[in-house]
Amino acid sequence: MTPAPAAAPGTSPAPPAPVVPAHGGRRGAGVGEVRLAPGFWGTLQETNARATLAHCLHWMERLGWVANFDAVAAGTTDRDRPGWQFSDSEVYKLLEAMAWELARSADPALEVTYAALVDRVAAAQDADGYLNTCYGHAGQAGRYTDLSSGHELYCVGHLLQAAVARVRTAGEDALVAVARRAADHVCREFGADANPGICGHPEIEVGLAELGRALDEPRYTEQARLFVERRGHGTLTPIPLLSPAYFQDDVPVRDADAWRGHAVRALYLAAAAVDVAVDTGDVELLGAVERQWERSVARRTYLTGGMGSRHQDEGFGDDWELPADRAYCETCAGIASAMVSWRLYLATGDVRYADLMERTYLNVVATSPAEDGRAFFYANPLHQRVAGQDVRTDAENPRAEGGARAPWFDVSCCPTNVARTLASWQAYLASVAGDELTLLQHAAAEVDVALEGGGRLAVRIATRYPDDGAVRVEVRDAPGREVTLRLRVPAWARGARFTDVDGTVRDAEPGWAVTRGVLRPGDTVLLELPLEPRFTWPDPRIDAVRGCVAVERGPLVLCAESVDLPAGVALDDVRVDPCAAPEADGDGAVVRARVLAPAADDDALPYAGAPAGAPGDADLRLALVPYHRWAERGPSTMRVFVPTA
Asked: Is 257 found in the same domain as 219?
C-alpha cells in the first residue's frame, strides 16, 4: 500500500477529508484531526459504525445487489438481474462509508469485510476499465445506450468518491486502482474529441473533480469541467411528463438563477460546479452557484433545511411552493445540500453556509436514521396527515413516503448516503486557514489540527449541544505565537454571550466569536447560546402554511405529534395561541392551544358561506418535540407548522 503523499516543507499536509480544494487558503479538518466524544453526533457516528454499515451490507447481499458483480466476473449475466440499474452505486457508497470509518476506528474485522467487497467489485471490471453490472455484457443492453436513465456514469462517480476516501486515508490500494482505470475509461470515451454525451444523473462530475485532486491528475478535473459545461443544452431524451429540468439539462449551469428539477441531481451538479470553479479559477461559475444558493435558500427551502417540494420528480417547486404535507425533502437531497454549502464555505468563508449545514444536519440528516441505525426515512415531510403503518420489516419497501422509518427501500440511496455522511461527519466540524482554527459545528469533540507555518492547535470541546447552549473550548496544545480561534454564532442566536480567555464577557452577535493571542494549555473560552423556544413565522407568500406558526428551540425545529394529544383530539383540529410565548420543556417546548369545535355537518362539501371551525373553549397544553425524533414512539400524525387560533 502506497502512503499518502507528504506535504511540502512549511505547509500543512493535505488532510484526509472528503473535500480538499486544489486552491484556496481554507481547508476542512481531516477525519483524523477531529475525534467526536459521546454526545449527539458522537452517538450517531458510533451507531453508524456498530449497526448501519452491517445493516446496509446485509440487505445488499440479501437482495443480490452485490452478487451482480459476481455474475459479471463469472460471465453469467444472461439471467434476471436484481435491483435497479443504479444499484451498483449503493455498493460504492457503502465502500466509501467503510473507508472513512476505517480511518476513524481501524477496525480489523471491518478491514477484512472492506477488502473482500473490493475484490468482488474489482473482479467485475472489464479490461478497458468499464465497470457496470447492468450494461455491456451478455444478455444486457450495450454500453451507454441509455445515457438519460442508465446511470452508468452516475455509478462511476460514486466509485470515484469511494476511492477518494480510501486514498486520502490509507493510500493507494485495489479500490483506488479500480477507480483509476474507470476514470481513465471515462476520459477516453467522453473526452473533448469523443462521445459528447452526459449522464442523466449528475455525480460523475463531483467524483472526477475530487479524484483529480486526490491523485493530482488534471485530466480528471478537465473531464469534470467538460461534463459541467455540456449540461443544459437539451441533449438527453426527456422522460414523459417531465421536463429537461429533471436531468438538469434545460439551462446551462452558468445561466441558472435557482435550483430546479430533481433536487439531488441539481445539488450534486452544483457541488461539482463549485469544485471545478475553485480548481480552475472560474469566478463566473462560482458566482453562478452562489446566486443559485441564495435564491433557492430564500424561496425554495423548508424550515428544516430540506429541499424538494414535489413528489412526482423528487424535485424543487417554484418560488414559495413549499407545501408541508407534500414536502419531499429527500434525505439524499439534505446530504447533497450540505455538500454544496461546505464547498461554498471553503471557497468564500461565508458563515451563512455553515448555518444552513447545521440546520440541515440536525433536522434532515439526523432525522433519517432510527435510534438503532437500522431503519430510515427517505422523504421528510413537515406534516404527516395519516400515521404511517405500512412499513415492511422483512422486505424492500416500494414507497418512500410513509410516516415510519423503513429498514430498506426498493430504491435505497438514502441509507448508504447516511452511512458515508455519518462516517465522515467530524471532517465538517472545523476549518483551518493560516494560523486560524474555526469551529463551525458545535459538538463534544477533541480537535488537533496542523497550522500553516508549523505547529499544532489542539482544543477540547465540552458541550451537550443541541440540548444545552453552553459550548466550552479548552486549549490543550498551541504554538508559541499568536493564533486565532473562532466559534460560529448561529444566525438565530440573538443574545449569545462569549467569555474570552481573560474572563472578559461580551455579547456575541451572529457570525463569529473570536479570540486571538498566544494561547496556552488550559486557556478556556465559553460560548453561551440561548435555547429558549421561539415562534417562527412563514413568509406570507408561502400559501400552504399561511396562518400557521412553527416553534424552534436553538437549532432544532420542533413538531407536534398525535401521541401527545388527549384521546379523541385530532392534530388537524388543534390551533396554537400565538399570544402566549412557548415554554421550554426538556429538549422541546409547550405551547398554549385550543381545539376546533366539531363540524356541524360532515356530509356536506367542506366549504361554507361563512368562516367555520372556530376554536372551542377548552385550553390545551400542546407538547412539541424535536423533529429529528418524530415517529420514534410509534406511528403518529405530525405537524411542524400548526394553524393559529
From this structure: no
CB neighbourhood size of 547 (10 A)? 10
- DSSP annotation string for 197-235: ---SS--HHHHHHHHHHHHT-HHHHHHHHHHHHHTTSS-
pLDDT tens digit string along 160-182? 999 999 999 999 999 999 999 99
User: What is the C-alpha separation between 373 and 632, in angstroms, rounded?
Assistant: 12
68, part of any domain: yes
Spatial CB neighbours of 105, under 8 Å, sequence gap ≥ 6: 49
Integer Cα distance of 32 and 424 in angstroms: 10
Q: Is the peptide bond before 540 cis (omega within 30 degrees of 0)?
A: no
Is the model's pLDDT at 13 over the cut of 70?
Answer: no
CA gap 145, 514 in Å, rounded: 55
Residue 417 lies in a domain: no
Closest C-alpha among 294, 245, 290, 292 to residue 265: 245
Cell of 216: 493530482
Amino acid residing at 103? A
Give me the long-range contacts of 490-496 (CB less than 8 A, separation at least 24): 490/355, 490/358, 490/529, 490/554, 490/555, 491/351, 491/352, 491/355, 492/534, 492/552, 492/554, 492/555, 493/529, 493/530, 493/554, 494/530, 495/530, 496/527, 496/528, 496/529, 496/530
At residue 14, does pLDDT exceed 80?
Answer: no
Given this model, what pLDDT does residue 550 score? 98
CA 609 to CA 627: how far, in whole Å?
37
Whether 400 is in a domain gets the answer no
Residues 517, 610 share a domain: no
Asked whether residue 137 is assigned to any structural domain, the reply reads yes
Domain that holds residue 559: 534-643
224-246 pLDDT, tens digit each? 999 999 999 999 988 888 899 99
Residue 208 has pLDDT above 70, yes or no: yes
34 within 8 A of 426, measured Cβ to Cβ: yes
